[in-house]
């Protein structure tokens, strides 16, 4: 599993944004969760290390609003409260744990964003997301 960061300037009038920074770190948060039902301590530490690195970028770029969205691994684990507490301690925000349906919609929206503005591609679209769990 990966953790992604997008820092952007958003125009409140139009909702459009200018990307300031975008990155992704593979943390394998879901490592072993299917087998044990728990987030592994080393997976949590990798995730928290990425959060600390991202916190430095957020501070450097002066971002004032932070949204942290979490998906399946944090939904399914018995010790998801440890994950939530760690993220809150590092970034100062409560992770928003979204449903599987919300996750699918956001994945679809992200995958088709560029297609939606193109006159060259006919609808409907088929999107396949192999996911991580």
UniProtKB/TrEMBL annotation:
Residues 14-133 form the Ppx/GppA phosphatase N-terminal domain. SUPFAM superfamilies: Actin-like ATPase domain. It comes from the Bacteria. It holds the Pfam family Ppx-GppA. One of its GO terms (molecular function) is pyrophosphatase activity. This is Exopolyphosphatase. It comes from Streptomyces sp. SID7499.
